[in-house]
């Protein structure tokens, strides 16, 4: 009885969802593209049998890219259907498409929209990246015998508590999955408690990402042009930048690099920095080298490896507010030590492992974080040890891509 009630609520709020898309589309025009797909209405015809991978946002799409690359090493002709929920995810996903692939919005989780989606694309199997388990979608795939799995799966204690509160809705959804492949043993335990059948602990796909050599080289070249140590605030989130700008005022001898998480906030963060009394230079205006300024603003997409190579140490965005922290794995792979705040529940085990390896340091506040980062860049021996620890940490946890690819190929009978 609970799922029909859930469906009625979703159907009732559809006008509000349309309004939300229009509002978001003002800052991010991508939300105004193919709006009817959100409601299960897709144009034209399409060939059935693609492997469907759902990557809701930017981070999940980057993880999906690693998996797709591993799959194509074994099955070069594999056709992919890539679905998303955010504009940044869809924009990143376009780079992954090859001839024969398709891309679309995953519809809102109403029975009719899900039915139209599955009838239009008729995928051979579905792979949900990390956390995206929807009750009607899971039930519809089970009813149609479409194998559905959760890959690179994670579930925090907070999310498990929410799942338990809605157990009559969430437990059948997790139970409808053919398998869950967890990132960590802790994730596996929580997923099983939520009702999923865990078929393996494969690790985190993001450890298998290879930073683009050209971006690393560019970042290191630009780093050599700065006479001051470079401290980066990586993937900053709303509510954190103000604290950061107040804290850095006490350290004039440092070159600051601020890279907001969401592109729709680039202009806002640049204006905020100017209002705080700092001179600003934006990546989008650089030609051969960063222009002199107290704060550089990283306002580009797809260049995080360059930014990490440009920095001597990075503060971890999302960890200084109660947002759970952003991914620190890419920083480690680029040899950039991390200082993180108290809130890393989105990547709890990775954060603890990084601490143990010496690749990261934890602090209680932004002020402490800025001071810790400055102390590290002013101690060449300590920073060199942290760089080596970061590289070792990243290398030690590789292998999830091949393990997950093997699981996918078994799933589709290849």
Structural write-up:
By secondary structure, the chain is of the alpha/beta class. It has two domains: 215 residues, 3-Layer(aba) Sandwich (Rossmann fold), CATH 3.40.50; 184 residues, 3-Layer(aba) Sandwich (Rossmann fold), CATH 3.40.50.2000. Helices cover 46% and strands 15% of the residues. The protein is built from 18 helices and 14 strands. A seven-stranded parallel sheet has the order 3-2-1-4-5-6-7, sandwiched between helices. Helix 9 links the parallel strand 6 and strand 7. The model has no long low-confidence stretch (mean pLDDT 95).
Find the CATH topology of the largest domain: Rossmann fold
The low-confidence runs, each spanning 5 or more residues with pLDDT under 50, are none
Overall CATH architecture of the largest domain: 3-Layer(aba) Sandwich
**Strand residues, percent:** 5-15%
């Amino acid at each position: 009885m609970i799922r029909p009630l859930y469906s009625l609520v979703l159907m009732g709020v559809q006008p509000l969802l349309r309004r939300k898309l229009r509002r978001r589309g003002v800052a991010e025009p991508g939300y105004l593209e193919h709006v009817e797909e959100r409601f299960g209405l897709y144009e034209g015809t399409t060939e059935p049998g693609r492997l469907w991978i759902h990557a809701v946002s930017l981070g999940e799409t980057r993880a999906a890219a690693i998996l797709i690359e591993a799959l194509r090493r074994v099955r070069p002709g594999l056709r992919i259907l890539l679905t998303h929920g955010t504009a940044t995810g869809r924009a990143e996903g376009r780079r992954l498409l090859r001839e024969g692939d398709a891309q679309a919005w995953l519809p809102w989780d109403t029975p009719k929209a899900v039915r139209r989606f599955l009838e239009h694309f008729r995928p051979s199997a579905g792979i949900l990246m990390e956390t995206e388990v929807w009750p009607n979608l899971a039930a519809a795939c089970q009813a149609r015998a479409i194998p559905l799995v959760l890959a690179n799966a994670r579930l925090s204690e907070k999310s498990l508590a929410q799942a338990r509160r809605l157990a009559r809705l969430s437990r059948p959804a997790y139970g409808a999955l053919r398998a869950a492949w967890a990132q960590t043993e802790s994730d596996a335990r929580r997923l099983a408690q939520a009702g999923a059948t865990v078929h393996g602990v494969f690790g985190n796909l993001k450890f298998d990402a290879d930073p683009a050599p050209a971006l690393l080289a560019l970042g290191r070249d630009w780093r050599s042009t700065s006479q001051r140590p470079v401290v980066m605030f990586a993937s900053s989130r709303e509510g954190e930048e103000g604290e950061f700008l107040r804290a850095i005022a006490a350290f004039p001898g440092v070159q600051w690099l601020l890279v907001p998480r969401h592109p729709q906030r680039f202009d806002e963060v640049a204006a905020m920095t100017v209002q705080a009394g700092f001179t600003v230079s934006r990546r989008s205006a650089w030609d051969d080298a960063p222009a002199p300024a107290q704060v550089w603003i990283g306002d580009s997409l797809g260049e995080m490896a360059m930014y990490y190579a440009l920095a001597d140490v990075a503060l971890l965005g999302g960890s200084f507010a109660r947002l759970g922290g952003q991914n620190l794995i890419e920083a480690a792979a680029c040899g950039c030590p991390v200082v993180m705040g108290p809130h890393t529940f989105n990547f709890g085990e990775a954060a603890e492992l990084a601490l143990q390896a010496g690749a990261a340091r934890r602090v209680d506040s932004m002020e402490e974080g800025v001071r810790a980062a400055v102390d590290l860049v002013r101690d060449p021996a300590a920073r060199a040890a942290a760089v080596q620890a970061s590289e070792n940490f990243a290398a030690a946890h590789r292998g999830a891509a091949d393990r997950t690819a093997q699981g996918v190929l078994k799933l589709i009978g290849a």
